[in-house]
Design brief:
Number of domains: 2
Pfam families: Hexapep_GlmU, NTP_transferase
Pathway: Glycan biosynthesis; glycogen biosynthesis
Strand content: 25-35%
Keywords: ATP-binding, Carbohydrate metabolism, Glycogen biosynthesis, Glycogen metabolism, Nucleotide-binding, Nucleotidyltransferase, Transferase
Structural class: alpha/beta
Enzyme class: transferase
Largest sheet: 9 strands, mixed
Subunit structure: Homotetramer.
Number of strands: 29
CATH class of the largest domain: Alpha Beta
CATH superfamily of the largest domain: Spore Coat Polysaccharide Biosynthesis Protein SpsA, Chain A
Amino acid sequence: MIERRGQPLARDAMAYVLAGGRGSRLAELTDVRAKPAVYFGGKSRIIDFALSNAINSGIRRIGVATQYKAHSLIRHLQGGWNFLRRERNEGFDILPASQRISEFQWYEGTADAVFQNIDIIESYAPEYMVILAGDHIYKMDYELMLQQHCQSGADVTVACMEVPRLEASGFGVMAVDAQDRITDFVEKPADPPAMPGRPDVALASMGIYVFNTSLLIEQLRRDAADPNSARDFGKDIIPYLVRHGNAVAHRFSDSCVRAPEEREAYWRDVGTVDAYWEANIDLTDVVPKLDLYDHSWPLWTYSEVTPPAKFVHDEEGRRGEATSSLISGDCIISGASIRNSLVFTGVRAHSFATLEQAVILPRCKISRNARLTKVVVDAGVCIPDGLVVGEDPVLDARRFRRTDNGVCLITQPMIDRLA
C-alpha cells in the first residue's frame, strides 16, 4: 500500500476528464445526453465520481472535454462545479470540441481531445497531468497514484485492476513484470491475455493515466503528426510508450477509497442498461457495496434546492411508504408503495401505485394503480394510470426496451406509442 506523505503532488497536477462519449450501449438513456451526464444514485451524474475523486485528492485545476450531445452535461457542470477560483490558483474549464486546431476538426479520439487544448493546459503550467475517463463509478485517491508515478520515474503510469479474463475484451489489457513495468498493452483484444499463473484473470486498464506534462505534450504532438494514428490513448499513446519508454502499472487496490463498511474495492462501468440498473439498485442494500454516506470522501454534485420528500395517506392499500429504498428531495409519495427502489428528485407517485426494484429518474409522474417491477424510467416520463410492467415478458418486449436480464427501460416516446 502506498502512503500519502510530504508535499501533496496534487497541488502541481491538473485533472483532464474525457467526457465526450455517447455510451450507445445505454440505448435511449443517451439519446439526449452523453453517458457522463446520465443520472446516478438519486442526486448525481456519472461524471461526478471522477470530478469528486479529483477534488478529494487535492487537485484544484480541472478540464472537462465534451462532445456528444453535451448540453445537459455542460449545464450540470456549470451549476455544480463553478466553485473553483482562478485567484486561488484553481480552475475549471469546460472544453467542447471548438475547432481550435482546425475549423473543420472535431475531437478525433481521446488523445486528440487533449491535444486540441494544449494551449489551455500550458496556461495553468501543471507539472503533472491526470487523464481520466468521465463515465465510471468508483472512489480513488489520485494523490497515491501521483506518488507512485514520481517514485518509479515512469513516463506514464496506468491505473489497472484485475478482471475476469472473458470480461476483459472491452478494456485495454496489459502484461507487467515483477516491478509492475508494463511489457505489453493491447486495446480491447478479442482474446484477452491472462495474467501469469492466473489463466482466468486479466489485468485491465481503467483509462486513468498520469504523465509529466512536458512528456505528455511531446507525445501528443508526435502522435498528431502521425497520419496512421487513431489519436487515441489506448490504441496509440500508451502502446508507443510501452514499446519506447517506461510505462508502469498502478494497482487500483493501492489507491481505492473505502469506508469501513465497504468490503471490496468498488469500480463499475455502468455502460449497459442491466449494469446501470444493477448499480443503482445495489445502493438500496442494507450495507451497499458503494457507500454514498461516506463524509470523509464526499460525492460532490449540483445540488438542487428542494423541499424534503413527503409521504401522505395512511389507509390500508393506500399508504405512502418506502422500504429499503432511496427517496430524493421534492418527491411526493402519495398513497404509493415503494420497495427496493431508487427514486430521483421531483418524482410524484400516486395512490395505489407500486414500485419494486425500480430506478425512477427525475421529475417522473407515476399515476394511480401503475405497477412497475425491475424498470428504469427515464427523466420526465409520465406513467399512465394502471400501466403494468415487469409481469408479462412478451408484452414488455413489444412495448419497451427489455434486456436479456429482464430489465425494462421506459422513455416518454415509448409511452406515447401506447396511445
